[in-house]
UniProtKB/TrEMBL annotation:
PANTHER family on file: ACYL-COENZYME A DIPHOSPHATASE NUDT19, TESTOSTERONE-REGULATED PROTEIN RP2
Nudix hydrolase domain location: 23-239
Cofactor: Mg(2+); Mn(2+)
Protein name: NUDIX hydrolase
Keywords of this entry: Hydrolase, Magnesium, Manganese, Metal-binding
Protein origin, superkingdom: Bacteria
GO terms, molecular function: hydrolase activity, acting on acid anhydrides, in phosphorus-containing anhydrides; metal ion binding
InterPro entries linked: NUDIX_hydrolase-like_dom_sf, NUDIX_hydrolase_dom, NUDT19
């Protein structure tokens, strides 16, 4: 990917040691999946999963980072996401830390941020009254009030769950990838990617905030839209969609073996032109 002049100049300054890269912030991103159902021949009563589709939101053009890009729900870890009081069901923070090569505390924050940000940006909540259940409906004025309170940080995620008698369902998340923003960027994130299936009974909604448009799209179709210049995808989003496009169903995504390898694109000069590469 060729770099624009401003970033190319910054890349040269960093490579020459004239500028120090800014530190990263831990963040989590969740790919919400749903299967697309197609009717089978009349001789069979069931339906066939022809999906998957993924939920994408377009960041407002006024955003300081990734303005105008179509992304998955996600965001930075809040310091309170590491709260030991968060009710938890599923793989432990220690187990998640082993998967993502992170400390137990960081892993706790990442999983909590994944569930919290997904609710904030899509209305989907990966939590339930117990370890084998999930909230069936998150619509209504009371849910919306809590969502807005989480966004403005007047409500901690642990308090939100406790007040509603809910436990975080870490078993509804699958680890997918680990991307670090290139050193040339002014805002940098150390982001772990998760995938999760839209819980039965729940539905996404256009909740506004940092996004001005949302859509459900098959991964291959989203990539085609990007090739036609109709949507803009950041490299991690494009790469993730490419991987998901190889899966014929949601079940295939969940069954996919994932070895989490850290990827940090870097700037290199090729024949006098600064480019961003991932290898």
């Amino acid at each position: 990917m060729p770099l624009p002049a401003e970033l190319a100049a910054r890349a040269r300054d960093i490579l020459a040691g004239r500028v120090e890269p800014v530190p990263t912030r831990d963040a989590a991103t969740v790919v919400i999946l749903r299967g697309v159902r197609a009717s089978e021949p009349a001789s069979r009563s069931a339906a066939v999963d022809t999906g998957p589709e993924v939920y994408l939101l377009r960041r407002k053009s006024t955003m300081a980072f990734a303005a105008g890009a179509y992304v998955f729900p996600g965001g930075s870890v809040d310091a309170r996401d590491t709260d030991q009081a968060v009710a938890w069901a599923g793989p432990s923070p220690a187990e998640w830390g082993a998967v993502f090569h992170a400390s137990e505390q960081v892993a706790r924050g990442l999983v909590c941020a994944a569930v919290r940000e997904t609710f904030e940006e899509s209305g989907v909540l990966l939590a339930g009254p117990g370890p084998g259940s999930v909230v069936a409906d998150t619509t209504g004025d009371d849910w919306e009030a809590d969502r807005l309170a989480l966004i403005d940080r007047s409500l901690a995620f642990a308090d939100f769950l406790a007040r509603r008698g809910l436990v975080l369902r870490s078993d509804l998340l699958k680890p997918w990838a680990h991307w670090i923003t290139p050193e040339i960027e002014q805002r940098r994130f150390d982001t772990r990617f998760f995938v999760a299936v839209l819980p039965e009974g729940q539905r996404t909604r256009d909740v506004g905030g940092e996004a001005d448009q949302v859509l459900w799209q098959r991964p291959a179709e989203a990539i085609e839209l990007a090739h036609r210049g109709e949507i803009f995808l950041m490299p991690p989003t494009y790469h993730t969609l490419t991987e998901l496009s190889a899966c014929d169903s949601v079940a295939d995504v969940l069954a996919a073996h994932r070895e989490i390898v850290t990827v940090m694109p870097r700037a290199v000069e090729i024949e006098g032109e600064m480019r961003l590469v991932t290898t």
